[in-house]
Amino acid sequence: MKQYIILAFALFSLSYSFSQVESNNKKIRVFLDCQSYCDQDFIKREIPFVDYVNDRFQSNVFILSNAQVTGSGGLEYTLQFTGREVFTGVNDTLSFVRQATATDDEERQQMVQTLKLGLVKYLARTEQGKNLQITFKEEEGEAGKGTEEEQEDPWNLWVFNARLNGYLNGDKNYFRNSFSTGFSASRITEKFKTTTSLNYSVNKNRFGEGEDAFEFSNENYRANNTTVWSLGDHWSAGGYIEVLRSDFSNYRSSWTLSPAIEYNFFPYSESNSNYVGLMYKVGPSYFDYIEETIYLETEELRFKHNLSLDISLNKKWGQLSGSASYGHYFHDVSKNRLTFSGYADLRLYKGLSLNFSGYYALQRDQLNIAKGDISNEDLLTRRRQLDSNYSFYTSFGIRYRFGSIFNNVVNPRFDGAGSTFFF
Question: Secretion signal: which residues (predicted)?
């Protein structure tokens, strides 16, 4: 008798479980892929009428979110809605702009509003559509106006930023402090872009204590400008100017001028999702060194050029970006540099994803390396740039997620446990 009761209870639990899944599946199943940050907990609270799944292959509405920086320093978010299964062929793209002065809360409110607008066409094709209510809020002072008046911009699209940063860290045997400040100005339109920045930083370090302590400091001044003009949907032309002083790199002063031209294989209007650009730069560089270099130079004027290919793709299967470049000095072709860099975040199958990033450079163009013996302090503290014919970094990870595909519930309890606050 006991066995029959257990069997009946198991059958009841199984049928109840299946009824829950069937009930859940009546909702739209959404996979939200945020290539830029999204407050997903907030989104789930504000849009509870869909099921959020952890596997894009189990969704019937796939949403890809990308962001690009605007001329004013804000962000333009683009949401691509792709229908699957019963919604195959029902696609849409919506966008909104987060102003540079907006708060995080204002941004997530805009995100929720845009997501709701994009989901309307899918809800209208389900039984949930009968519960859909649409209201329209008139903007204050806009009632009765047929067209929106163009706002005057007293700054004529110029945007300025100023910053000041400080840092202290240490103990009995080590002390470091750093200070940096900077200023930037930019003006960006559809046909023209110019950005200028001025930066200064100083780092002071102490290793050990008393008479045996080893101390050094590094100062860095940098000013640069990038200006570019549009030459159509695929071509751009402009140039770079940079002025530099660096204790670490042995530059009393360095001046570089690089006119450049770029071809984008995709229209620039699609750069949010597809960008494949080929750029060529050429121009002079003047170097005034703090110490005599390993090539017995204290100053020199050299010409160089560089060709680079940059790729950035944001798709349903993930994100892929990379760059390859080659350049050399004209006075000596052996003084060259070949670099490769890449980043990938790929969803291979259901909950299985792979991410990788890396950089590798074959560098034979270090004209600035100071002559002299390399001390143990130089090696351990990296207080100055040392000769090296290569450099690299790499990282990778793999993730597999399985179990319930539904994750609608938000429970923030104990999320703040163990946090430290400074006043």
Answer: 1-19
